């Protein structure tokens, strides 16, 4: 049973494929009350959590909790170039396409995240292409985000990762340093390997919060 504080009046958002909570932490810092969903147990996830298949639980949780927004970070192995270097993309299910379709069908404000390659083949739009250097992080970690049923494009400084040799690369021998550089100090090394820097989703989440506030005023 998910326990949500009935006295917490912040807008509720559900983060599907939440992992250990990198994206959720950013949205939380932007002002959302978070509920995470993942097929694996996530003892490090810092907010309310429901274990299960994200796409299976989506209709049930939206009906039960009536969130203000939904977020999703479906696994990226079917799009990521490194998968092809190490094996075959066909060995991994495409969760991005059905997630986008399911979110579009809801009609709620949403954000979906993935690797840049997902935008190169037009599977999703790159409404945002974010880099750690835009937020003062010592990593690249390029990620794209598609937003739906809301608008907001608060611009950031340009990427400053080109030929920057001081940035921390991802290496299995030093995963802890990489996770910490992302701003994910509470995570395991494995969780950090797959995480979205909270700074990215805090930036997007603040714009969505502003939109929701304006939308509520317009509807009043």
Characterise the protein shown here.
- It is a single chain.
- The protein has 220 residues and is α/β, with parallel strands linked by helices.
- It has 8 helices and 7 strands.
- It has helices at 22-30, 54-65, 81-86, 96-106, 117-120, 175-182, 189-193, 198-219, and strands spanning 12-16, 33-38, 48-51, 69-72, 110-114, 128-130, 143-148.
- It is globular and about 50 Å long.
- The chain starts with 11 loop residues before the first strand and ends with a helix.
- The model has no long low-confidence stretch (mean pLDDT 89).
Mean pLDDT: 89
The number of distinct β-strands equals 7
Could you spell the SSE succession in H and E letters?
A: EHEEHEHHEHEEHHH
Distance between the termini: 34 Å
Helical run tally: 8
Here the CATH topology equals: Rossmann fold
Give the tally of structural domains: 1
CATH class: Alpha Beta
User: Would you identify the CATH architecture?
Assistant: 3-Layer(aba) Sandwich
Unreliable sequence segments: none
The CATH homologous superfamily is named Vaccinia Virus protein VP39
Question: Main sheet?
Answer: 7 strands, mixed
Approximate shape: globular
- Any idea what the radius of gyration is? 17 Å
Helix/strand/pairing category: alpha/beta
Strand adjacency order, main sheet = 3-2-1-4-5-7-6
Q: Percent helix among the residues?
A: 25-40%
Share of β-strand residues: 15-25%
